[in-house]
Amino acid sequence: MSRLRSLALTGLALGVAWAATGALRDAVRPRDPSGQDGARLLQEVMDRVRTNYVDTVDDARLWELATLGLLGELDDPNSSYLTPARRAALERTITNSYPGVGAQLELIDGVPVIVQTRPGTPAEQAGLEEGDALLVVDGRSTRGWSDAEARAALRGPRGTTVRLEVDGPAGRRTLSLVRDQIHVNAIAGATIVEGDIAYLAVSTFSDSTAVELRRAVDSLVARGARALVMDLRGNPGGLLAQGVEVADLFLGVGAQLVTTAGRTVASRHVYTDSTASPWAPLPVVVLVNELTASAAEIVAGALQDNDRALILGRVTYGKGSAQGVYGLDNGAAISLTNARWYTPLGRSIEHPVPTDEADEAARAEGDTTRPVLRTPAGRAVQGGGGIVPDQVVGDTAALLADRRLAAAVRRRGDGWQAAVRTDPAVSRALAILRRARAPGDVFVD
Q1: Looking at 79, 206, 208, 294, which residue is catalytic?
Q2: CA 387, CA 269: separation in Å to the nearest integer?
Q3: Share of the chain above pLDDT 90, in %
Q4: pTM of the model
Q5: Is the domain of 100 the same as that of 231?
Q6: Catalytic status, residue 319
């Protein structure tokens, strides 16, 4: 045993000496400013993994792992490698469209059940109804499927056929549907919720959100709407340009909307309103929560800083950066943070990554350490992470209620307007807007 211990200590000493020698050699070796040392180091590491690692790793995977490691070490959750499949999924999100049948599913007692069919889609045309249980898809039983598996089975190339066996209100039947390109409206719901007060929920900022929002609000105004509750709760954002266009619809010519700042000339820009608002007299309350992010925060920040809307709810997510998607030769892409954005008053809403409980507590509403700024009308707004509402409604426990309301709005079944009216945040917004006759009136309570 003593001999083994002696050999082990000798080996340890040799290893330390070798490492120390290598460290000294690296310290005195002149660094190549062109980056050739770094390229040589990477190649050496890859060669060692290729020849000595316990499992075989092919060259394509080695390079992909190197890419993932580089992007991962940037310590930026928004910079990532997008495989061809993930890139395609992102593009579907941007256009808010996908090839499928136009049916929304939920798992109920372990069975995929139709909860909504979109108007004019193959699902509606084939006679699928709310409450139809999806039993078999193309000869495969759905028993044990997740909702994601069921959705994936209904999607496929445009023009292909999917055969379904369902059981529901109209009995058990077999249907054949031809898949088509399905567009999901960015406006989840819009209605006159009380008197002359309208409610509108925006679910995402895809490439057609501004056009769809204008169409929806114009329709509500034509029906007599004289005030608006715009619900951005749970909205994950999307395209910065769409956030700018939506804010532009509510503000006057020359109003500053958002500023982006990055290393390249293209990433540095001050966005200002270029058109007169079609709804200038319309008082607006915007609802937000901790899942309101990105382009949705751009809208909330622009309307708050310009005294155009009262922000009501809970502190938003705090994504104050913008990303570019850069295509690669292999069909993949990288999403790379290329700019940070700031509200018209110069607030960065980026949430720092919490390092301890004290940092986490600093995200809470009413944090006295946040800087306070003044809008042109003299209102106090808070800087720091996220958009801090003018009025706080609810707490983190209310997030489940927000999701239930969002589900009711998506389904558009009987009574969804009642679900909107009884939501605590909407009720608070209605109480404010009942007294409002001009945009500035919503700030007096």
Answers
A1: 294
A2: 21
A3: 58
A4: 0.79
A5: no
A6: yes
